[in-house]
Design goal:
about 190 residues, flat, 4-stranded antiparallel beta sheet, 9 strands
C-alpha cells in the first residue's frame, strides 16, 4: 500500500512537471516566432524609425495645406426652427513656420448639403461661410450635413449633424398645489 501511494505521488508530480514544461514550450515558441518588428530597420510607409538610429525621432506626416471644418449653431433645435451652419476654411504653411491664414475672400467655393438640399457659397475675408437653414429633419434622427470645399481644383469634405428634438405633448393634471404634466407617448 505504501509503495502504491509513493508511486501515485510521483505520477502526480510528473504530470505537473509535464504541464509546466508544455506551458514553457508554448511561451518560448511564441517569443521566437519571428513576428516581432525590428526597431532598427526602416520602412517607407509604416512610421518606423528613420535610419538605424533607435534614438532618432519618427518623421511626422506632412501637414495639410488646406483644412475645412463645420459645425451647427444649435445641435438639437425644435422642428421648424431656423438654425445656422458655420464652415471655416484655412490655408497652412507646410513648413509650419507660421499660423494658418484665411484664403483670399471668395476664392473657396463651399457646397453644403443640408436635409438633401444643396446650398453653395464662397468664403468671406476671415475664411468663414454661413448657411442658414430650417431644421426640418425627422425628430430624434440625426441629420448628417455634408460640406465640400474646393481648393486648387481638389475637393475637401467634412461632415457634421444636428438632431431635431421630439415634440413633447402633455396635459395638466387638475388638483391643488403645483401643476404637473402627464406626458403622452410620441407617435
Amino acid at each position: 500500500m505504501r509503495i502504491r501511494n509513493e508511486v501515485g505521488g510521483m505520477l502526480r508530480g510528473w504530470r505537473a512537471l509535464g504541464a509546466l514544461g508544455c506551458l514553457l514550450l508554448i511561451l518560448l515558441t511564441g517569443c521566437a516566432g519571428g513576428n516581432a518588428p525590428n526597431v532598427g530597420t526602416t520602412s517607407g510607409d509604416t512610421g518606423t524609425l528613420a535610419g538605424n538610429d533607435p534614438n532618432a525621432a519618427p518623421t511626422p506626416p506632412p501637414f495639410p495645406a488646406f483644412t475645412v471644418g463645420a459645425w451647427v449653431n444649435d445641435m438639437s433645435p425644435k422642428k421648424g426652427k431656423t438654425d445656422r451652419l458655420y464652415v471655416l476654411v484655412r490655408l497652412h504653411d507646410s513648413a509650419m513656420a507660421g499660423p494658418s491664414q484665411p484664403p483670399p475672400e471668395g476664392s473657396i467655393q463651399v457646397t453644403a448639403i443640408i436635409d438633401s438640399t444643396p446650398q453653395q457659397k464662397s468664403n468671406d475675408k476671415a475664411g468663414y461661410i454661413f448657411f442658414d437653414f430650417t431644421a426640418n429633419a425627422p425628430p430624434t434622427v440625426p441629420s448628417v450635413i455634408t460640406v465640400t470645399a474646393v481648393y486648387q481644383g481638389r475637393p475637401y469634405q467634412t461632415t457634421t449633424f444636428y438632431t431635431v428634438l421630439p415634440e413633447i405633448k402633455g396635459t395638466p393634471t387638475p388638483g391643488a398645489g403645483t401643476p404637473t404634466v402627464t406626458p403622452t407617448p410620441h407617435p
